[in-house]
Amino acid sequence: MILETMEPNPVWNADAHADTVETLGDFADATFKIWGADWCGDCRSQLPDFAAALDAAEIPDDHVEHYPVDRDKQGDGVDAYGIEYIPTVVVERDGEELARFVEAEREPIAVHLATQLESAESTA
User: Fold this and answer.
1) What is the pLDDT of residues 76-98, one digit of tens each?
2) Strand 64-68 and strand 96-102: pairing?
3) The CATH number of domain 4-123, selected from 3.40.50.150, 3.40.50.720, 3.40.30.10, 1.10.1280.10
4) Beta bridge partners of 96
5) What is the secondary structure of 82-117 as a DSSP string?
């Protein structure tokens, strides 16, 4: 099942977030796992911009996995990844978690993940 909230925001400005887009693009070989729900207000407000950032970074569709949850926040991978809040996004490469965004971070999903990914890249 695909999250409708992952439909890219058509007015999101990639040029205003060039560094973020570039960093995400550097991880085009990673997998972006998104837990969310179309009924969730936080998902509806945050995921379209994130989807637009993934598009701008040219992340292949087969590297973006959707994990819809029900109103009890149950669904595929919830227990295995310790998902409590949505949206949650986990970035993995070769089975290793590189970055994670959880619902109430103070910055947008793409910016938060890009910052973590830059740190992961500099320590690699």
Assistant:
1) 999 999 999 999 999 999 999 99
2) unpaired
3) 3.40.30.10
4) 93
5) T--SSSEEEEEETTEEEEEEETT-SS-HHHHHHHHH
Alpha helices in the chain (DSSP H): 18-25, 41-56, 78-81, 109-123
How far is residue 105's CA from residue 55's CA, in Å, rounded to a whole number? Answer: 22
Tokens at 46, concatenated: 């945050």
Res. 19: pLDDT tops 70: yes
Q: What burial class does residue 124 get, using C-beta atoms within 10 Å of its C-beta: 0-12 exposed, 13-18 middle, 19+ buried? A: exposed
Confidence (pTM) = 0.95
DSSP 7: S
